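Dear Dr. H.,

I hope your travels went smoothly. While you were away I took the liberty of generating a structure for the chain from your last submission, since the lab meeting agenda had it listed for discussion. I wanted you to have the full record in hand beforehand rather than looking at slides cold. The sequence, exactly as received, is reproduced here:
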Amino acid sequence: MDTVSRTKDSRKMNPVWIIDDDRSIRWVFEKALTREGIPHRSFGAAQEALERLGAESPQVVVSDIRMPGLSGLELMQRLKERLPAIPIIIMTAYSDLESAVAAFQGGAFEYLPKPFDVDHAMELVRRAMAEGERQDATPAEAEATPEILGQAHAMQEVFRAIGRLAQSQATVLITGESGSGKELVARALHRHSPRASRPFVAINTAAIPKDLLESELFGHERGAFTGAQATRRGRFEQAEGGTLFLDEIGDMPADLQTRLLRVLSDGHFYRVGGHTPQTANVRVIAATHQDLETAVRSRHFREDLYHRLNVIRLRLPALRERREDIPMLARHFLAKSARDLGVEGKRLTETAMAFIAAQDWPGNVRQLENVCHWLTVMAPGQVVDVKDLPPDLKNEPAARDAGDADWKRALEREVSGRLARGESGIADRLTRDFETVLIAQALQHTGGRRIEAAGLLGIGRNTLTRKVQELRIDEKD
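The corresponding predicted structure, in token form, is as follows:
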């Protein structure tokens, strides 16, 4: 049986269809889409969705690849026959990578590996919705871009830089910690530029498998490889005349760094399997949370590409560097969450606000927004005091100091015991144990959401993913 949800502000939107025989997957999407205020309908089988097609048209389809009856690939083929421009996201387990590649190259908008991060899945859905609007014959309103808030001196410098760069065509490199708002700044640079009427196309180079990234960026010709049943435009062509935002550029594979350098150098590229040069009339804005200078010295990032990207550098301050902005941001996010959920807004007491402003916020603005959303849903009353804050936020300094002393003493005893037993390689084994506990606990706290866990730990998502694989943390659950 299908389900549908609509909010007051989105009744005119066609729903997003979720198709998966796994009820838990459908439930996760239903909750996330409801939270975002996006109308949706879910189905347990592909045939159910096809039967519904006569009554309504989806704006985006998210489908599993392996289901009883019609598969996700067969469903995609049927849908494309009737709705050629509809963006389709194919979900698959890691073991289905070959099928996922074939689906992606054969016309799917994007592919989402299981298990997935909910935030990443919603990012793909929003991107697919934006792509569908661009392809619609009726001109759509420009995608709403959240306002960047900040009164701190460091943020005023950012705003001044955006103003100075408004009419520039220069390549910009945005640096800053995860969750500090790098994509918001990139969108603001686009919105205030002469290219504002043209597309803003964003791609997270760390979120797409290496095997697919080249085709995703540059497109491919029909027959370029197995499964390439049609010519596909890459992100450079999709952003023609506009802005291409390359997020997490520090994670780009070396061979693609070379191709990107050529595009930035002469403005031309070739589709995968193509022999005709394509012209790239785009402004490139790149972003990273990594130290690219260190990556250059260690030869993980090309020095010539670094200098091509680093024409103008714009550093975003961490939230702990602009604490005076925290009360304003907290009030903004509480009001936004209340609007999104259709409930009465919550208000922080002066004590709670002071407590929040004193925190370090390793996940930066994104973490603060998540906490405000949690309060809107979970806080018992309309007035929120310190006792109502999330448990992980309420570790008083004294309690933290006592806990620090306890585990450090335990570590001292462990090291002393191993040294007394004549063990060697102690640092390596203890470091692995420490990282395993740290990452496993963070993932448990976030319900397996790796982006959020990485933000709380203050490390990059790719670093966390690599550590999970190296330490085999999933096998220890």
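Two observations you may find useful: Residues 1-11, 137-146, 396-403 have pLDDT under 50 and may be disordered. The chain is about 45% helix and 10% strand.

With kind regards,
E. W.
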